[in-house]
Amino acid sequence: MRTREVIPFVIYLSKRLGALAVMYFVTITIMFLLPRFIPANPVALYIQNLAQEMGYFSNPEAVPELYKVLFEEFGLGKPIWKQYIDFIANAFRGDLGISIWLNDKVIDIVMRALPWTLFLFVPSTIVGWTIGNYWGAITGYKRGTTFEKTSVLISSIVAQIPGYWFGMLLIFAFAINLRVLPPNRAYDPLIMPSWRMEFLLSVVKHYVLPFITLTIPYLCGQVISMRNLMIYELKSDYTVFADYIGMPDKVIRRYAFRNAMMPQVVNLSIRLGRAVAGTALIENIFAYPGMGWYLAQAVTNNDYMLLQGLFIILVATVYLALFLSDLVHLVVDPRVRLGYAKS
Amino acid sequence: MSKILDIQDLVSYYVQVIEGRKTYVKAVDGVSIEVKQGEVLGIIGESGCGKSTLARAILADFSPPFQYIRGSIKYNTKDGKTLELHKLSRDMLKKYVWGVEISLVPQFAMNALMPTLKVRKLVMDIMRAHFKEVNEYEVIENVNKVFQSIGLPPDVIDRYPFELSGGMRQRVVLGIVATLRPRIMIADEPTSALDVTTQKMVLKTMLDLKKREYVDSIIFITHEIGAARQIATRFAVMYAGKIVEESPTEEFIEKPYHPYSSLLLRAIPDVAQIMIQEKIVKVRDVLYIGGAPPSLINPPLGCRFHPRCPYAMDICRREEPPMTQIEKNRFAACWLYAKK
Amino acid sequence: MAKVNKETILSLIKQIRTSESLRMLLRNTRFIVGISILLGLVLFSYLGPLFYPRDPLSVRNPSLLPPSPEYPLGTDMAGRDVLAALMYGTRTSLYVGFLSAGIATILGVIAAALSVAFSGIVDNVVTAIISFLLSVPSMLLALVVAFYLPVRSYEAIALILGITMWAGFARALRARLLSLREEDFINMSKVAGYSTLRIIFEDMMPSVGAYVIIFFATHIDNGMVGEATLSLLGLQPSGGYSLGLMFSQANSQGGVLRGAWWWFGPPGIIIMLVVISMLLVSTAVDEIFNPRLRRE
ipTM value of the model? Predict the structure, then answer.
């Protein structure tokens, strides 16, 4: 990168980082405020139940007292802004509270779940994106052929299959009927987690179906979008000119592909926003112990602490990934880079 | 002056399948034209008369739906060989003809540069497409010389197209074309949609390139006669897929022979004037081009211009007039001049 | 404030009636097929019970029976007749889908119109809200809001889903309206003294009408899937029955593991049918109203 490009580059990135940080805080704040402004919120209910339970075992008369004590302990007695500060301060220190359901530190639970989710999500996105884009580019180039028409037809339909349903069907086909792959969990519960072959094999076996469920619809979506982008590129004025000035077809194809890829890089960030829900659902179908599964469990068990913690970490992950994709886009597209060099 | 390009009776249509039936758009319907070394040929006509298609046909870019029907395109290369362009495959054309022998400056020249490539890289790629041994340093020096001669600053080569103004981009395209030293440069509507100053700049650049012998001849395709006239040495008027008049520039402007040309120039041909005075011909509409451009799918029978011609006679409705020589170097296809 | 009076509405109707594009649309195969599928589903869910009058919620039947002449789609774990449940569920899901897509469309149109009509601060605020909504993972937001909601009716769910869906649409619509604003015929209306709102509704809306319709159509299934997502994550609406509920019960009650394909298969097929039908409709509308895409 030339010197004239570096400084605006840094400025733009910092601005972007700042904007994302602000949005993150707004999101967290909204999440913080929600339960405190809705009547009959689960927090108070939970405390009530807890108090009653404890009171049941010791002294029923002491329930209102217990309630007050717990109320104070959960910090609900302090003014809102103070609660907010405590909340933010704790979050920064890594203290996200105690999960009601599992009686474990929320941060620990979340950190246990996150790797599983990433393990499922990241390879799926990479594979889906690369293969989908290549297939899509070839399809776009071969416009008008039977290959193209069939590819488009199949891909448009498969791309729209709801992930969870697809998962159910795959479980039914391969786990129940054919019995070749396990229907749920990340690994055989009878094997102790370790680096031994036995465990690793088990993980792989349990990985296949969720991976396919997550990847295939996404891949097909990429095929469609890349095909459209490729067709647009091949029709462009500069493609026609390059053609007429004698540039060989292969070189032109290469450049068209590169140009069409740029929007696809941007699309990666959009994928993240949408994929959270999809991945969560698939984790639930397969009882895969990632963030999504814990999310549903938190909901079912009314564990608002865990829910809150998961939310905070998930949103942070998404924003981080957004920032990274912005960075990549900046590096790859000279137009964006130099757009900030012009003053 | 030797002949560079010799097109004889070229016929090529667009084939479309509309509602199950094959329809032919007769964009180039029997065109015969020559291009000599060192001349600037202006091909003029209305939009939709087939002139842009003619550019494509000269390059022999017969890819569907554009189909070659018959005729010949003979071209003499820089090293003396004669090629029959209509017989060459697309790959051969790309490697040996397009760009290096005959080059097209497209209508949308401002958008013709790939937006994500620096000019330098684009030039190198184009060079590598045509020549085996490419020395980057030499190439860049060469290109810079060309660029400078048409008034571009030397750092243009390291810029991205979006960093340059429209006029500069236009000149870069012309410069790139010139670097390949084609014998013929075809310019398709280079001045339309440009303001007058930029027009003048483009025309001057093209002439400069010719003067410095970067190109031998220029084919200038346009509907703006005023612009073409500034650099053309010869005019060919195109109507409904056919050439209807050929003539050196100044004589053409002063006194056009074909009624269509006269309507384009808003002047009455001498012969027609005499024939009107002697009441041989009745004038229908005086001096305005009524009617719409003819359909290229179903062109009118006989002379294609007869529905809009003020001097149409009976024979015009029945038979197509042949290209007749009226004076030395002046031809027209019109029954006013042809002997019958 | 403009009076969106009888005249403007009548002229809009007249425009629709005399529109040639509309006539072409009605003759387009894809459109017809798509609409028919959707109508078929609606009929299935609303009129079906007339022909098959089993109580969808009754749990008195034996559980997990595969399809048979008596129970055409078998029964689920709790003993409900799957076919009856399917009809009832489709009804609710379609309702949620339409409602949420409608809310999203209305919100989007209002936001875009406000943004374009009163540029400046209003525009900045709206754009900021849109950017924010677009960066947050919508499902997470919907999840959290639904979690804390005291009453989880289907309408509330539809509202939440609608709120998560309108942002992208509003942004694209705003972009189109902005480019329209530069057009000459808008300037003429301005010169003629039309109020801003009147310009928006009379001049701009017809041009973007197709886009709005496409958005609405393609997001009906979004709403249905959204409802299913929330149900699967544990946030079933209270009371009533929907396709999402069928999925979630099949999952949580082990229907999948026991291979009860008659239970979780059909709801998925219904959703796919909605998706495909809306895809067909939207490509047809796009083809007709966007001449650049018409087949050469």
Answer: 0.80
